[in-house]
Amino acid sequence: RSLAELDAEVIGCRACPRLVAWREQAARTKRPAFADQEYWARPVPGFGPADAALAIVGLAPSAHGANRTGRMFTGDPSGDFLFRALHEVGLASQPTSTAIGDGLSLIGTRMVAPVRCAPPENKPTPAERNTCRHWLAAELDLLRPTLRAVVVLGAFGWQALLPVLADAGWPVPSPRPAFGHGAVLQLDDLRVFGCYHVSPRNVQTHRVTHAMVCEVLTSAAKVTGL
Ligand code: SF4
C-alpha cells in the first residue's frame, strides 16, 4: 500500500475504546473559541511528503488541536511553537499552521504520532501505545527508502519508536538508550535525535526553548541534506 492508502486506513481506526470516546467527546463539548467548528474527531494521519528524509515523532494529537483540525500539530500552542522553528530552519513553507488548506507544506519532513487519537490529559496508556504501534511501524516502513533522520519529541515517543525500529531490523542497542534532549543514536543509515517535547509546560518553564529546538532540527536537516 502507498502512504496515501495508509493514511486513508488509519483514519477509520477505532481500536482503543477509551480514546475513541475521548476524541468524540471533545468534538461534542468543544472549546468555546471553536464552537462554530466541526471537529475532525478521528485518528490523525501523518503529515508531510511520502519521500521524506526526516521524520518528527511526537506524542499524540491534542483534543482541541489536531483532533479538531485533522492535521498533526495544527491548531494548538505546541504546533505554533514547532512550526515557527521548522520554518526558521527551512523545513516548513510558513511559520504558522492553522488548518488544512492554509497553504502550509513541509519540506522533506513527515510528522508522525505514535498514538494517533487524542488521549485524556495527553497521556496514552502503554496498552494504547502498543495497540497503535502497527500504524507507526507501517508508516516508517513506507518511508524507509528515503528516511535518514528522526527527531523524537519527548520520552514517550522515544519509548514508542525504538522497539518499532528494532523490530524493523535497525540495530537498536540493548539495553535501549535512555531518552534525553541532545541524545543521538546512529542506527546504520538512520540518525535518531532526542528533543524535549514542545508542550506548553516545557515551553513555559524554559525546559525547552526555540533555540534548542532549532538546533536539533538543524542537526537533523544536515544529516538528511535538507
Ligand atoms: Fe487506532 Fe491508534 Fe487511535 Fe488506537 S490510538 S484507535 S490504534 S489510531
Descriptive account of the structure:
The protein is of the alpha/beta class. It has a single domain (3-224), classed as Uracil-DNA Glycosylase, subunit E (3-Layer(aba) Sandwich). Helices cover 39% and strands 10% of the residues. The chain contains eight helices and five strands. Strands 2-1-3-5-4 form a five-stranded mixed sheet, with helices on both faces. Strand 4 (184-187) and strand 5 (190-195) form a beta hairpin. Helix 4 crosses helix 8 and helix 5 (126-143) crosses helix 6. The protein is globular, with a radius of gyration of 16 Å. It starts with a helix and ends with a helix. The mean pLDDT is 97. The structure holds iron/sulfur cluster (SF4). Residues 10, 13-16, 19-20, 43, 115-117, 128, 131-132, 135 line the site of iron/sulfur cluster. Iron/sulfur cluster (SF4) is lined by residues 10, 13-16, 19-20, 43, 115-117, 128, 131-132, 135. This is Type-5 uracil-DNA glycosylase. Residues 45-217 form the Uracil-DNA glycosylase-like domain. Keywords: 4Fe-4S, DNA damage, DNA repair, Hydrolase, Iron, Iron-sulfur, Metal-binding. Belongs to the uracil-DNA glycosylase (UDG) superfamily. Type 5 (UDGb) family. InterPro entries: UDG_Type-4/5, UdgB-like, Uracil-DNA_glycosylase-like, Uracil-DNA_glycosylase-like_sf.
